[in-house]
């Protein structure tokens, strides 16, 4: 067995032990196919107010520029699909935000994985990334065989659907590389048909500036009145394109206690949310990704939904 093969097996075994759903590895290099897509996305202002996407264009497409000496991208998936979900007549938040902020949960696991690699192999240089740096997570996960990028532009797997976070280690170690899987969306257009704001304007292309997640999280100005009545009661993020995807019928609930929701979250109805106080917001979302939008932002979203009903 070569060192590359041995080290790859070691990394994948430890990733599994740490609770990651899947681990795939690809050779670090320039993302040739992604370059024109990213350029088109930015040139047509599909990113709206997310101006940071315009920065570090070269680093975004080539991890060897982002992490000098990089040889491998280790992509990892962490399941967040909840056992219990919000129900009844209520305002909704995306399932990924039910529990502890995934950035912190995954970063701790990635640090542990990198430490294990160094303990077992020796001095290995590299960095951990969780959706907070110029890394094209889904492209690398697809390249390493963890799934294919679906028509809604999210990563999809035949076994597990799409309810998981994507993260990676970029390291200066030669490893055994996995190969991409084929696309299994077929003729299905469920996600395109279900999107109430027409953000998926054609298969495999999303206008980020029209997505409900963008409006309720990233947009700092007022939500356009033209979108009123289209949000299907989503107040933070949106799972519509995932909920209707046939591959998500295979989703299984996560085993990460930190992703479990605050008990009050699942009990609240529309009236409770409309009467939300700063204190209750702080209690329910103490260490949640929902804090990104802040109390004022969530109230703005709830008021927008209330006026559209």
UniProtKB/TrEMBL annotation:
Subcellular location: Cytoplasm
Enzyme Commission number(s) of this protein: 1.17.99.6
Keywords: 4Fe-4S, Cobalamin, Cobalt, Cytoplasm, Iron, Iron-sulfur, Metal-binding, Oxidoreductase, Queuosine biosynthesis, tRNA processing
Chain positions recorded as tRNA binding sites: 220
PROSITE patterns for this protein: 4FE4S_FER_1, 4FE4S_FER_2
Catalytic activity: epoxyqueuosine(34) in tRNA + AH2 = queuosine(34) in tRNA + A + H2O
Gene name of the encoded protein: queG
The species this protein was found in: Mesonia profundi
Iron-sulfur keyword on record: yes
Family: Belongs to the QueG family.
Binding residues annotated for [4Fe-4S] cluster 1, in chain numbering: 185, 188, 191, 245
Keyword Iron assigned: yes
Major site of localization recorded for this protein: cytoplasm
Residues where cob(II)alamin binds: 60, 131, 155, 213, 238-239
Identification of the protein by name: Epoxyqueuosine reductase
Cofactor(s) recorded in Swiss-Prot or TrEMBL: cob(II)alamin; [4Fe-4S] cluster
HAMAP family membership: QueG
EC class name: oxidoreductase
Pathway: tRNA modification; tRNA-queuosine biosynthesis
Function according to Swiss-Prot or TrEMBL: Catalyzes the conversion of epoxyqueuosine (oQ) to queuosine (Q), which is a hypermodified base found in the wobble positions of tRNA(Asp), tRNA(Asn), tRNA(His) and tRNA(Tyr).
Lineage start: Bacteria, Pseudomonadati, Bacteroidota, Flavobacteriia, Flavobacteriales
Signal peptide stretch: none
